Amino acid sequence: MAKLIGSAPNQISTNGDLGSMAFEDRTNYITKGASVHQPFRNIIINGDMSIAQRGTSETGITSGGYLTVDRQSFVIVNQGTFTMSQETDVPSGQGFTKSLKFNCTTADASPTGTDRLYLSNRFEGQNLQYLKKGTSNAESLTLSFWVKSNKTGTYIAELFDNDNTRQISQTYTINSSNTWEKKTLTYEGDTSGALDNDNNNSLELNLWFGGGSTFTGGTLNTSWNANVNNKRASGVVNLADSTSNEWYITGVQLEAGTTASDFEFLPHDVNLQRCYRYCYRINGNSSDQQQCGAIGFANGGSTFNAMMRFSPDMRTAPTVTEDNMSQTTTGSAISLTGTFDNSDTSDCNAAGLSFSADSGTPFTVGNVMFPRVNTSTSAFIQFDAEL
What we know:
Layout: E1 11-17, E2 20-25, E3 57-66, E4 73-87, E5 99-106, E6 116-124, E7 141-149, E8 153-161, E9 166-174, E10 181-187, E11 201-211, H1 213-216, E12 225-226, E13 246-256, H2 268-276, E14 279-283, E15 290-291, E16 294-298, E17 303-309, E18 319-323, E19 325-329, E20 332-333, E21 345-348, E22 352-358, E23 368-373, E24 380-384
Antiparallel strand pairs: 1-2, 3-4, 4-5, 4-6, 5-13, 6-11, 7-10, 7-13, 8-9, 8-11, 9-12, 14-24, 15-23, 16-17, 16-23, 17-22, 18-24, 19-20, 19-23, 21-22
């Protein structure tokens, strides 16, 4: 007799074996003997810190941005100097292979005013509509992550609603120096302020490790309210107060509900594709030229037109930067005196790029052209559509 898993009408047959049938619940993704796991439940992209297209280390940081590990933006304003790097120091036995590290290299023991330090993850509103923010059914959110630092004390994890200028903060404590600790925090659902259904920065997770009085002078706001700056990070430590200070993080997960589930490990290719929506970078190397995925044709004695299709589509029309690009024509490589210049870009949107470029070397009109990244470890072309 058939044994059913799930409840009608969501039961669907998955296989037959000697007259018996197994079923799965297509609503909750339940299979026999397996626990309930909703796919892509982690709002954070690259929370295991495994993808670092731009490079694995950046030194001398006094103004932040997206510098190393993908989707991790460092906000630093007038509060010391830092190195930001991808590391292999991870909590033992948890499945992680990479972490993100911040190391203070120039101290600032007395932050003032608008000084600030935090790590920011930013999310498109169209990806968060299921949270039902701004309604009576607003979902709670649970944050979990692994953290390690020699600087013990109180840190702040903040959710900031950019669409409605609202925020909520929670504290966590690093108890033991230089020891990986797992932290779990839950945030109530916000029944005020719906998130915009678009591709802009609607919500941020900000992990504070320093700030001046503008952000720390009040009483910490632990419920959703209209933003008051001095209630955002009250009581936070100052990671910039000594050049011996370090802070590591990995396994960052933000999900709907009041319970933290196990970290959602994604296959490398899936994780990388999700990062490509915000940054797509092709690096050169010392042994081989890297084709940039564009193809075109020579339309004049020293000019060519080319087109490049992004896959997946980027969040918005990207900013294009490059160094040490050249062109290859059908049949042979041409030694060029010029390089691709992104200022020659004629049309660019989220789906792709068309451009023209010039060279001092004569082309044969009609030849197929392939822009490429040269054989240099410093050569690259990068498309940036970050929030």
